[in-house]
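Attaching the record inline, Q. Sequence:
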Amino acid sequence: MLTEQFLARIHLEGTKIDMKRLPLLLRHVAQYIPFENLDVMTGTSKPLSTAYMTEKILVNGRGGLCYEINPLLAEVLRENDLNVKLISATIYDTLQQQFSKTGYTHTLILLEDHEERYLIDAGFGNNVPLMPIPLNGDVVSSTNGEYKVIGDELFMKRRYRDEQFILAYRFKLEPISWKQLQISQHIIEQSEASVFNKRPLLTKCTEEGTITLSQHELTIMKNGLKTTETLTPEQAMKAKKQYFYQ
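Structure, as predicted:
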């Protein structure tokens, strides 16, 4: 089963997957499956499919972007009788004060349970919520910060990074198809407006903070303390293995 491979990949072998344990599952996904665009930068990515994502993330121990991590997670949740579908969002750029010109290319999960709906997003870089977020406006808290939904928009107040809630993205509730996923993949890989085809990026969350390797710059946020170090190519290769591919 896909579930067994997935749980082994995130060091949760034998764990039951249900609503109660979703926060635990999401914390482990964030810690062991890095958000990364290396295949985009090398031009070695393949058309999206469950088989491709399984091989890349579970067999080869890699990470991926939102349209790889979240669809794979959705398949695992379905396998465990959770009612989920993939939806899309457009990211809000706080610095530019505008939504991304790539449009609705961010992929996330909508979960329905006992007539309540939740957003699940394991593919939002080091901004991932680490908790299902109810669509009823309630604030949820995790080691990564606080999150809430207002209407069709997600707001976040990331720990040690935001003084107040800021807009993260606007989403649509309509389910998206594999064809739409592949269109998003093409835009992210080829569009000049995409931020993910400019420089290599690896990032993940830990219980203590976040770790990011952008080109040769390693940034570690640990318990509110931020350190940044410029690495040689050889040091960057070692950092990939030490921090991201465990």
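The radius of gyration is 17 Å. The mean pLDDT is 96.

More tomorrow.
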